[in-house]
Amino acid sequence: MDKTWNNRAWFLVLPVLVLVAFSAVIPLMTVVNYAFQDTFGNNQFFWYGTDWFKEMLTSDRFHDALVRNLLFSAIILAIEVPLGILVALSMPKKGVWVSVCLVLMALPLLIPWNVVGTIWQVFGRTDIGLLGYTLDAMGIDYNYVANPVDAWATVILMDVWHWTSLVVLLCYAGLVSIPDAYYQAAKIDGASRWAVFRYIQLPKMGRVLLIAVLLRFMDSFMIYTEPFVVTGGGPGNSTTFLSIDLVKLAIGQFNLGEAAAMSLIYFLIILALSWVFYTVMTNVGADRPVKEAAR
Amino acid sequence: MSDQATTAAGALPAEPRSETALSAREHAASGRFRPKALIPILYILFLLLPIYWLVNMSFKTNQEIVTTMTLVPNHPTLKNYATIFTDPSWYSGYVNSLIYVLMNMVISVAAALPAAYAFSRYRFLGDKHLFFWLLTNRMAPPAVFALPFFQLYSAFGLIDTHIAVALAHCLFNVPLAVWILEGFMSGVPKEIDETAYIDGYSFPRFFVRIFMPLIASGIGVAAFFCFMFSWVELLLARTLTVTAAKPIAAIMTRTVSAAGMDWGLLAAAGALTIIPGAVVIWFVRNYIAKGFALGRV
């Protein structure tokens, strides 16, 4: 849509600006403050330069948490994206069952995150949880409290349970926007099932899929509540992801300087990712007509 | 040559049509079970099983939970739910959560409406930067903000009030609402605005009388997602409250007592937090993907 240039539109944006400035800019400035200062207590701060950043960037603790988080994101993407596509492809296209599927699949998305943690914490226990009990009965030595591998498996399974539906719903939204004529043309050409997927469905899903991957990546990159409830970051530090580590550092140990430096590094990574996301999101001109027609 | 052409013209359209017609009939009329349907069914079972287990546990006594493994409660009891609905320290958690979630929803949507209109209709100095900056706030990890929020709201004496949590959640909900509403508003042709202005409508009157009804579904979706993201968030809500405004999700952690875990009560409290989402979801089922993708699908 062609928009008119009008700087008075700033008045319309003003409430949002004030609100977000209060809830984002001021807190962020506090963080910046701490990141460059140190204290002897009594609220007396002095300039500390960039030493916190040097310390943070060279610390094993930060590296480990970062690597752990990246590995976690990679694994859940590798599971959730193919699974999401598969489920979306096999969903019914019309009828009552579509609504039933959509509603049931969206259910985990709307459960408070710590309740998600609680559900899996209980579900995985060998004494009272169905999953843990069944695994135990099958003779598998499963204990997510003591064994790092089991803890990872539980946290990953939980995330797959919690968020795969998002990939499904986005892919499905992309799929239903494909006009029937495409499928008929493929049928006339005698295209195989794979060819239909590769040359019609996948390209048409491309943008939503990209959105899904980016959303999942960023959300898994700041995951806190669910693994914290299930494992508390343990056993040892094996499931301590970036956010969990940051909260431990800031609120647990009250190590403000390091925590602030880590926050800023963390935030810069997110900023870079957001830029990619923004470019994808606002670059919609290409396939708008198709969407409008389908709607 | 002409022979070939006629056969080709005669055969080509006829064959695929009959084939599609057949397969369509197969799919629609027969109701025959297709193996492909197995995938969504299995997936949904996988989703529902842990939820079922939670609900199942909530109807059991602690005695039964700890001692036996039963798929259906042997002696179904409503005791756990009764405890929650009669003990003020429990049900106040739900009330607190609902208060700050609703406050946040109203603030976010009210502030986002004019801003989204500005973004969808006008170009102005710094508009793209501002739009991007809003997105970064939606994506910002709450963990980064937990401590500064605590200090900021302490300074204003707002700790342990509902408005503190409502304002804190604006961090990610206002950008979300702006993006979703902008997506819906861009679908409304600009000619409508221009016609209304020519007809002598002032901006506020046009916005409330004509424009808002047009994007009513968008407002509903934005409100739903603000509600949802505020409802599921716990880190900030827990950091900013002590007792008076403590959300139910934080109260749940109380079930550890000297006598061990009160699993039944925990399960009942958890099951109740699923209800608000489960109730509203039917109405927004076609917009879920759109909402999560910030109005861009």
Give a structural overview:
- The complex is a heterodimer of chains A (295) and B (297).
- Chain A is mainly α and 295 residues long.
- Chain A has 13 helices and three strands.
- Chain A has helices spanning 10-35, 51-58, 60-89, 96-106, 113-123, 130-137, 148-176, 180-188, 193-221, 225-231, 242-252, 256-282, 288-294, and strands at 4-5, 37-39, 45-47.
- In chain A, strands 2-3 form a two-stranded antiparallel ribbon.
- In chain A, a hairpin with a 5-residue loop joins strand 2 (37-39) and strand 3 (45-47).
- In chain A, helix 1 runs antiparallel to helix 12, helix 7 packs across helix 9 and helix 9 runs antiparallel to helix 12.
- With 297 residues, chain B is mainly α.
- In chain B, helix 5 packs across helix 11 (216-232) and helix 9 (190-198) packs antiparallel against helix 10.
- The chains are: A mainly alpha (295), B mainly alpha (297).
- The interface between A and B is large, with 101 and 97 residues.
- Strand 1 of chain A pairs parallel with strand 1 (122-123) of chain B.
Short structural description:
The complex is a heterodimer of chains A (295) and B (297). By secondary structure, chain A is mostly helical.
What's the topology here?
The complex is a heterodimer of chains A (295) and B (297).
Chain A: E1 4-5, H1 10-35, E2 37-39, E3 45-47, H2 51-58, H3 60-89, H4 96-106, H5 113-123, H6 130-137, H7 148-176, H8 180-188, H9 193-221, H10 225-231, H11 242-252, H12 256-282, H13 288-294
Antiparallel strand pairs in A: 2-3
Chain B: H1 2-30, H2 38-58, H3 62-67, H4 79-86, H5 88-121, E1 122-123, H6 127-139, H7 142-155, H8 162-185, H9 190-198, H10 203-214, H11 216-232, H12 235-239, H13 248-251, E2 256-257, E3 260-261, H14 263-280, H15 288-292
Antiparallel strand pairs in B: 2-3
